[in-house]
Amino acid sequence: MSTASTRLPEGRYGRSSDERTDHKLKIIGAVLGAALLALIGYFAFHYVVQSEISGQVITFKAADDAVEVHLEVHKDAGTAGYCTVRSQSADGAEVGRADFRFTGSATRIDKVVTLRTTSRGTTAELLGCHAG
Fold first, then answer.
1. What is the pLDDT of residues 41-72, one digit of tens each?
2. Matching CATH number, 53-131, of 2.160.20, 2.40.30, 2.30.30, 2.60.40
3. Are 113 and 83 spatial neighbours (Cβ–Cβ below 8 Å)?
């Protein structure tokens, strides 16, 4: 007795439907992955480009009822905006917070501002700068 093979001869009938489906799924996955990367890149680019004002705290000097903060602000010419600064006490409680406005055509501003506090502040933290 001879046994018949249940397998089809290799290469005679083309690819199976499972292989065609796998190939289509790989193409769809690649296209969706590329679209997701493009979308992330788009949002990242616009986040960076829209940052018209940036700043940093250079130094600060604390007193009993105020903190003098030396800010350096970089902005586009003619852009008006503000930077938010806060101070905390030694135990971490917020003792002062204020917005300081910057206008004019200068692109770099070095300014010492005074942040009034409810008790002695031990820090000066720049929370952020915003156009507007």
1. 998 887 766 657 889 999 999 999 999 999 99
2. 2.60.40
3. no
